[in-house]
Amino acid sequence: MDATEPPKNIEEELDSDIVSIRAEIRNLQRKRRLLSSSLLNSDNFQKCLRDYQASKPISSLDKDVSPLVRAAGKHAETNHYRVAFSATTFPFKDPSPNSENPNLLGLRIDVCARNGRFTKPYYVLLKRVRGEEKRLQVHRHTIPAFISMEKLERAFLPLPSIGKAAAEDVLKPWKKNANKQDLTRFVRELRRQLATWHLRMDAVNLLREKLGVLRRSVGEYHDDDGEVWYRDILSDDQEEIRLATNDLGIVSLSPTALEATYVRLEWQDGRVGRFKISNTGAVERAVVIGEDGRDKSLEAVLTGEDGRVETVVDRLKKHLVPRE
Prior knowledge:
Layout: H1 8-40, H2 43-55, H3 66-84, E1 87-93, E2 103-109, E3 122-129, E4 132-141, H4 149-156, H5 164-171, H6 183-211, E5 213-215, E6 230-231, E7 240-243, E8 250-255, E9 262-267, E10 272-277, E11 283-290, E12 293-294, H7 296-303, H8 312-319
Antiparallel strand pairs: 1-2, 2-3, 3-4, 5-7, 6-7, 8-9, 9-10, 10-11, 11-12
Helix pairs in contact: 4-6, 7-8
């Protein structure tokens, strides 16, 4: 090996430092945007800005301040629309030159997360059914795969009956309404499922925060500490995390899938549990298994009292005595 080549462990330390610095830069940039937006939208600043604009035209604003003011105003206006109209429609032209239906109807759905920020918008493009100008069907979408768009289409955007089913509708005219499309209910149900999914993810992150979370991409860590790191499927960058040492002895708390309906718990003494989160945020069912079989007393703690998922850690701290 070349004498000038740094050892492998030094390269790993440098890579770790670079990752940490980049993460810190991203955090500082987000903090700067938040503070800038808060300052520019404050009542005192807006009052001073109105007084200044009353005496001078808007074009005379300082070059360094004017872009920030315009960006803050546009950001505030966008957030106002997102809060008031969480689902909006817009016309969209299909860029494909071979499209049979170039004129599409776009649907945008916004969901606000627990930290007060809006998530990345979800889009659905609808096209007209050939021969049925008043009927729509899904053309493209950015909805997660675990939300069945096919079921939503069958329920709220059904296509006209053909063949034997059409003949049955003629004999039974009261069934005609079964094929009636309802775009409003389609949008309402789709947004409800997206919102409940984000609420489940927020609940899992809240439980982790109460127990303490260590993130591998931020701060110092050691590979020789004997702890197991696992990839966080709920984060956008899929960073590696693990729970900090806590009084409850819980070493892992993570959803079993991206849908975040089922959450898996693991204790230091080898006990493993799983509970289900309902669409209303309640713990519907829980199972805990240890060396001696099922721990029904602990299962009752997970589902007891108010049954809310947000208070799972509080109930465990109140009723659970960690085993030695």
